[in-house]
Amino acid sequence: MTSVLLSVNQLSKSYGGRLAVDGVNFQVRHGQTVGLIGPNGAGKSSTVSMICGLLRSDSGSVELEGEAMAQGQTGAKLKIGLVPQDLALYEDLSALENLKLFGALYGLKGALLKERCAQALDMVRLADRAADKPSTFSGGMKRRLNIAAALLHEPKLLILDEPTVGVDPQSRNAIFDTLEALKAKGMALIYTSHYMEEVERLADHIVIIDHGKVLADESPADLYRRLPAQAALRAELAQPLAAERMAELLAGLRSLPGVSAVRELGSQAGEGGPVLEIGLAATAHAASVLAWLNAQGCALQHFATAKTNLEDIFLNLTGRSLRD
């Protein structure tokens, strides 16, 4: 197992009388991609700001390779690259001039600065637009330039806060390709997003925060094991069933090997028979369940299978109520 790069220890932060971050703990290892997710107002942004040293915590600590992240301490901060949700670019400077400015803030100059700018532009596929201004760029290109600016000082940890907001599918895939290339080179990433499919694609470890507390801190595989159903079969019967017959059918389904739960959802727009949602321990059990339904004389109008995904787990842990 790789060594620990970042340690977040009992971080807490209050705003007035509201406790926004409540004893948050987690670690990031060298070369690891951690998905940091939670509903709106869960405490993610405050946690990220404290990790970067932009916000002072009320209690707790942040360490990078054993070095404390503290006010006035620049050593630990220089190991972090931050890609903020709000674009941090100068629209009337060229892409290259933007990078030269940010590089100078990191203390880079001369031939080294020129080399780092060229490498960063190449990494995000903007080398051919180096002389153009961000004011002429699409939203996705601006996001990629934002990432380039965070890479100039070759950080050990890159933190990305909603980096694909408002970008087209092509730019999203270009961003994913860049992040996967950085991970392959050994860079550690913290990735925050409301798009669960992005976190599923990129992260090998997931931290879920809600109401300022860590609800989960584990691998995707371990998270999936939290739900009894790893897959689902949705079966729409061709004909309605009498109440007694439906009760018998549901009881029979629940007794089948590999079936963890059964729900009757009612008919679709009043047509045909009821829809059954059947939780399965694995997708492989779907065939035997369908065979059993056929043996019971239940003709199907439609059926579909699906695997449990991160959104299912997220909603199971944080609930379905709307957030601000």
UniProtKB/TrEMBL annotation:
The name this protein goes by in its record: ATP-binding cassette domain-containing protein
State the InterPro entries in the record: AAA+_ATPase (IPR003593), ABC_transporter-like_ATP-bd (IPR003439), ABC_transporter-like_CS (IPR017871), P-loop_NTPase (IPR027417)
Q: Which SUPFAM superfamilies match?
A: P-loop containing nucleoside triphosphate hydrolases
Q: Which PANTHER family match?
A: LINEARMYCIN RESISTANCE ATP-BINDING PROTEIN LNRL (PTHR43582:SF2)
Matching SMART domains: AAA
One MF annotation (Gene Ontology) recorded for this entry: ATP binding
Alphabetized, the UniProt keywords read:
ATP-binding, Cell membrane, Membrane, Nucleotide-binding
Q: Where is the ABC transporter domain?
A: 6-236
Origin, by domain of life?
Bacteria
Give one Pfam family. ABC_tran
Q: What organism is the protein native to?
A: Pseudoduganella aquatica
